[in-house]
Design a protein that fits this description.
eight-stranded mixed beta sheet; two-stranded antiparallel sheet; about 35% strand; 12 strands; alpha/beta; Rossmann fold; single chain; 7 helices
Length: about 220
């Protein structure tokens, strides 16, 4: 299943527009907040697919019948660009467990080609858990697939959700082919093109640099 946020008319389209707008991107704090807000909206949509149970809570005037999540998900993010999107998800799934993975593009000198390096991983057990994997840009899809495979050393989740602000059509198709059957994708917007350097077009640029400053 692929859910594309911009196909639903909502204020979230305004958040995505500001993420893309070069006139707004100069404000790093606003860029981070817009990523966070998209995470919040996608968290709400994703929550509709989870399992709930009935319980009672005491109010000052009596007892209310309510529904609560049957289990908390594990929110996993790819450092560093994924942190604001992750925070948006965490604002809604505030009792979730969390996982963090360091993955980056290792370029060959003078070439557009690159390899994905996964270096750091911190996670609870994922055995039979609901795993939500967040990365703001799903470009080639390779990072998402390699990070998921790296996380499998902590156990095999029963359900996988992938959350991104923007995806390329090519990267989304790659991820769908290489991630488990039944994976659900929650995407802000899907763009059709990608450059030779694997940047999404029109995309928004380098999300990590825009959120936290340029790296060496």
């Amino acid at each position: 299943m692929v859910y594309e946020l911009v196909k639903q008319h909502s204020v979230a389209s305004h958040f995505l527009a500001e993420l893309r707008d070069v006139e707004v991107q100069g404000d790093a704090m606003r860029f981070r907040r817009n990523l966070e807000r998209i995470g919040e909206v996608l968290a709400l949509e994703l929550s509709r697919t989870l399992s709930y149970e009935d319980r009672e809570v005491n109010t000052p005037l009596g007892v209310a019948q309510v529904k609560s999540l049957s289990e908390q998900p594990v929110l996993a993010t790819i450092l560093r660009a994924g942190l604001p999107l992750h925070q948006g998800m965490l604002n809604y799934f505030d009792r979730a467990d969390n996982a963090f993975v360091s993955a980056y593009r290792k370029h060959r000198k003078g070439e557009d080609a690159f390899e994905i390096e996964v270096e750091y991983l911190s996670s609870p057990s994922l055995a039979d858990r609901v795993l939500v994997l967040c990365d703001p840009m799903l470009a080639t899809g390779q990072s998402m697939v390699l990070v998921y495979r790296a996380l499998l050393r902590l156990g095999i989740p029963k359900t996988l959700h992938v959350v991104s602000a923007i995806a390329s059509a090519e990267g989304l198709e790659y991820a769908r082919r290489h991630l488990p059957a039944g994976t659900r994708f929650w995407i802000g917007a899907i763009d059709e093109e990608m450059t030779a350097q694997a940047y999404i077009v029109p995309g928004l640029g380098d999300a990590g640099d825009l959120a936290y400053g340029k790296k060496i």
